[in-house]
Amino acid sequence: MKLKEQRVLVTGADSGIGQAIAETFAHEGADVAIVYHTDRDGAEQTRQCVEAAGRRALVIQGDVGDPASVRRMFDETVRTLGGLDILVNNAGVGADAAPVDEIEDAQLERVLRTDLMGPLFCCRAFVKLRKQCGGGGRIVTISSVAQHLPTPDSAPYGMAKAGVGSLTRSLSREVADIKINVNNIAPGLIETPMTQSRLNDPAARERSFGVIPWHRAGQPREIARLALFLASDDGDYVTGQTWTIDGGLSMQWGGA
């Protein structure tokens, strides 16, 4: 087992990529703190998967964009699981399409607070905790291929994801001396509840697949397997990197 007796906190673990990561990590020996925002039923499904793998599961309601909520999440995880070795920042939100000159303040606040400040708040809490334990540990953040590509009518989302890439690089240098690995995964189109409406629409699906060289959506478990590599000893010599997994979408310059 690659994560035997490790303790991991996964934000946004109630569905999609977060749920797949929680289940995959449990099968590799990790106990999992499952953080959800509103989908309690989804979080309970994740708990059942973790426990079916023979590991401990803790379900926590939380808002990564609220520093007080983040502190509570970490305190509850340490109290119940006895510590924390791995952080997976997965929680995120999208937004309705809007050009920059029409973006509402509330929309901008929601996206940046969840998708950018949220990972920062969680990283801050994790680093403080690991310093108290003498160092070590791993951080994996799930961003988006949008951090590399123009995002017309979705600038706040692209800004947030690009910021996460910058956070990954900066933080990796800050914590290298205490041996905390910090890495980032930038998925392309993945089949999750957030993308299901697009994939269910034949015309939208055809347009999307038309610009992906692999001509399909990725699956959450494909992201989970990469996260496992980065969170395990297999990825010990990797830090400060963004790993793009998008079926070749970002290689389309000059193509379709």
* Portion in helices: 40-55%
Let me know the largest β-sheet. Answer: 7 strands, parallel
Give average pLDDT, whole number. 96
How many β-strand runs? 7
| Computed Rg | 18 Å
Task: Give the CA-based shape.
Answer: globular
Within CATH, the superfamily carries the name NAD(P)-binding Rossmann-like Domain
Stretches where pLDDT is under 50 for at least 5 consecutive residues are none
Distance between the termini: 42 Å
Q: What's the CATH architecture?
A: 3-Layer(aba) Sandwich
Number of helices: 8
Strand content: 5-15%
CATH class category label = Alpha Beta
CATH topology tier name = Rossmann fold
Sequence of strands across the biggest β-sheet: 3-2-1-4-5-6-7
Structural class per helix/strand content?
alpha/beta
Could you give the order of the helices and strands?
A: EHEHEHEHEHEHHHE
- Number of self-contained structural domains: 1
